[in-house]
């Protein structure tokens, strides 16, 4: 019998939390010149985190007990859920609880896909603004605000899905466990040390 792999492990949960903190920190320090170095640090942490997430997507099924969802999987989930929500024959059923829940699930998955894509774009534009031309600042701000809009969609659909399901849907991303394989726990520790070390030395530069 083949073993069913989870799509979430402790490393993915930690990266999710780091990405949330880094984006929040980057967004609220963006217009403060005194905290410009901190803003840049958060941006680089976002890029480091998403890079590790991509690497872990391909590595974890081979060395761990998880098989994380990727962009292709989540895009398919989003498309199918939204398609099903509009597949009903009349307007009454379109606005039914089931249809609203399917549409909300679709938007939730779609927001993850676009957030995943936008992170390197926002960071690259921030780097370009800092090191090449200040004229990229407006473009950087536009994509940062688009990022914020996607985060709002993500959180809003999470809340709506939780209300409709009558249980908090985000618990799986917050519930920490050491039940994963040792390699996963060691990788999580490595990532925490890497992010912590990078932050310390970057701010000390």
UniProtKB/TrEMBL annotation:
It is found in: Cell membrane. The chain crosses the membrane at residues 12-29, 41-59, 102-127, 142-165, 186-203. Keywords: Cell membrane, Membrane, Transmembrane, Transmembrane helix. It is a multi-pass membrane protein. Pfam families: Ni_hydr_CYTB. Residues 8-174 form the Cytochrome b561 bacterial/Ni-hydrogenase domain. It comes from the Bacteria. The keyword Transmembrane applies. The keyword Ubl conjugation does not apply. This is Cytochrome b/b6 domain-containing protein. The lineage of its organism: Bacteria, Pseudomonadati, Pseudomonadota, Gammaproteobacteria, Moraxellales.
């Amino acid at each position: 019998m083949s073993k069913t792999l989870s799509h979430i492990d402790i490393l993915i949960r930690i990266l999710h939390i780091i990405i949330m903190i880094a984006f929040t920190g980057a967004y609220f320090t963006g217009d403060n010149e005194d905290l410009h170095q901190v803003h840049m640090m958060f941006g680089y942490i976002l890029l480091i985190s998403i890079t590790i997430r991509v690497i872990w997507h391909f590595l974890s099924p081979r060395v761990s007990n998880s098989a994380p969802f990727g962009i292709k999987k989540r895009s398919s989930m989003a498309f199918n859920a939204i398609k099903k929500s509009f597949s009903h024959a009349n307007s009454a059923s379109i606005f039914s609880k089931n249809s609203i829940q399917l549409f909300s699930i679709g938007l939730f998955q779609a927001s993850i896909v676009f957030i995943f894509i936008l992170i390197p774009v926002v960071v690259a534009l921030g780097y370009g603004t800092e090191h090449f031309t200040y004229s990229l600042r407006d473009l950087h701000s536009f994509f940062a605000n688009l990022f914020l809009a996607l985060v709002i969609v993500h959180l809003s659909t999470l809340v709506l899905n939780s209300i409709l399901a009558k249980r908090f849907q985000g618990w799986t991303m917050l519930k920490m466990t050491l039940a994963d394989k040792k390699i996963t726990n060691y990788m999580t520790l490595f990532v925490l040390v890497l992010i912590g070390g990078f932050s310390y030395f970057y701010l000390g530069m």
